[in-house]
Amino acid sequence: EKGNHRHYMEKEIHEQPIVVAQTLGAYLDPLAETVALPRELPFDLADVKRVQIVACGTALLAGHVASYWIESLARVPVAIENASEYRYRDPVYEPGGLCLFISQSGETADTLAALRHAAAGGQMVAAVVNVDTSTMARETQLLLPTHAGPEVGVASTKAFTCQLSVLAAFAIALGKAKGRVDAAEEARLVHLLTEVPAAMNVALRCEEAIAAMAPTLAKARDILYIGRGPDYPMALEGALKLKEISYIHAEGYAAGELKHGPIALIDEHVPVIVIAPSGPRFEKTVSNMQEVMARGGRVVLISDAEGIASHGQGSMAAITLPTVDPFITPLISAIPVQLLAYHVALAKGTDVDQPRNLAKSVTVE
Ligand code: F6R
């Protein structure tokens, strides 16, 4: 049921504070300020020596964000790979290898085949899945469910932020098991995660500003997204979401990579969406934004009040998010990125919930 929303996608975007709270509730004890993975673990997280993340599309981008969390909190090396490519690599399986699969449907053919390959190769296997009756949920050793509820819009929104929520909790749990996250740090991180739903509610208030600029962006033929650190996969996610529902060509780049080629595309006809929350990465991303402006590029800056006050001038639009700790920024910047795709698609009049050529669950390889 869409309720009073025009599309499932819009409803699912607005549901995120609730379903993220639900999902976090299954992994966090907010009073004790600790993480708790569900059920008995089929293997000991302390044995994990490296993590291989495998998924497709938006789920893969959730994994890309998680790779930053896992490496910084647990100091375990992480590799990420498209499920469709994974088996063609002849992957190296060693003791201590954990393969982590992420899938909303739990049925994506490539991800499922990769899961079976890793299990047969003697790896520890964990899966972050939204549909708990799915094949992946049944076949994985460790199931890490998301509690997003049924996702109907073809473009994944609430499943993505619920995946991020589970992965953040998992990264803390792994950090604990590896002796890298002590009780005080665990309490601090858990506390930050409990603030996410309220911060998401504040972030949703940027919808009006996004709707106001959407008709301008809808006229573009190409749109670029840039970000640095965990904001880089968010740039990739912004571009994926926009292209799949608005059919506008979009690409995401690591902010610092722009000058190695893509900056040649920049002129007044190619808007650039800059995802740059204030914090440790802000100044460098801003200098990449200024490189774009110096070449006549029009910029949309997605940041917080502080970031926009210091560097919002000269942009065609600025989208203000609440100020949050750098640990949780991807969960918050997901909101404007999704709303932007949604409102640009509305302005173009495309079929938001059923974009052409796409299926909700991809069960062929
Ligand atoms: C993008 C999108 C797809 C899916 C991908 C994986 O909005 O929805 O990229 O994320 O097809 O699907 P699942 O998560 O079901 O394995």
Automatic annotation (TrEMBL):
Domain SIS: from-to ranges: 41-180, 213-355
**One GO BP annotation of this record:** amino sugar biosynthetic process
Judged by the first EC level, this protein's enzyme class is transferase
Q: Which reaction does it catalyse?
A: D-fructose 6-phosphate + L-glutamine = D-glucosamine 6-phosphate + L-glutamate
An annotated GO cellular component = cytosol
Q: Which UniProt keywords apply?
A: Aminotransferase, Cytoplasm, Glutamine amidotransferase, Repeat, Transferase
The free-text function statement in the UniProt record for this protein reads:
Catalyzes the first step in hexosamine metabolism, converting fructose-6P into glucosamine-6P using glutamine as a nitrogen source.
Q: What is this protein called?
A: Glutamine--fructose-6-phosphate aminotransferase [isomerizing]
Classification from the root reads: Bacteria, Pseudomonadati, Pseudomonadota, Alphaproteobacteria, Sphingomonadales
